[in-house]
Design goal:
This protein is an alpha+beta fold. It has one domain. The protein has a six-stranded antiparallel sheet, with helices on one face. A hairpin with a 3-residue loop joins strand 3 and strand 4. The chain is globular, with a radius of gyration of 20 Å. The N terminus is likely disordered.
């Protein structure tokens, strides 16, 4: 018995995935090979959101996805943080990458729900010990100016 494969027709949408992967790989190579490395911050795992002050650098690490998301704290509450951060959609990222743009995200302010008892998310406060940086007030002001 002979089986014949049906020939797949390839449309533009199905080719976007490999093209985007290729472009992202090239962008990463460009940054890792030509840019000077960033100085590493000291990360403190947070167990109480009241430790955060406006202007702090926060990161959320999703252990189930191996994904870290960073932002600037605007306000800390009992179970959420208001943060200014980069946000993107796949559609916007595809368009930006096809145009050759590295800056592919919008900057937004939003509430980030936090469950400190979660086993799949860790929250970190980044300390800039001996690394020149803006004050918390200046950082927050600069972040607000980038919204849009």
């Amino acid at each position: 018995m002979v089986f014949f494969r049906k020939k797949k027709t390839i449309n533009n949408k199905s080719r976007l995935g490999p093209q985007i992967k290729e472009q992202v790989t090239e962008v990463v190579k460009a940054f890792t090979h030509k840019e000077r490395s960033f100085q590493k911050t000291r990360n403190e795992k947070i167990t109480d959101l009241s430790k955060f002050q406006p202007g702090d650098h926060v990161s959320f690490y999703k252990t189930d996805f191996y994904y870290a998301h960073h932002g600037i704290v605007c306000e800390a509450r009992t179970n959420y943080l208001r943060v200014i951060h980069y946000f993107n959609t796949l559609e916007h990222a595809q368009t930006a990458l096809m145009r050759g743009s590295v800056y592919i995200a919008a900057i937004i302010e939003s509430e980030w729900p936090v469950n400190l008892k979660s086993t799949s998310e860790d929250v970190y406060l980044h300390h800039y010990d001996n690394i020149p940086c803006f004050s918390n007030e200046e950082t927050l002001e600069r972040a607000f100016l980038q919204l849009g």
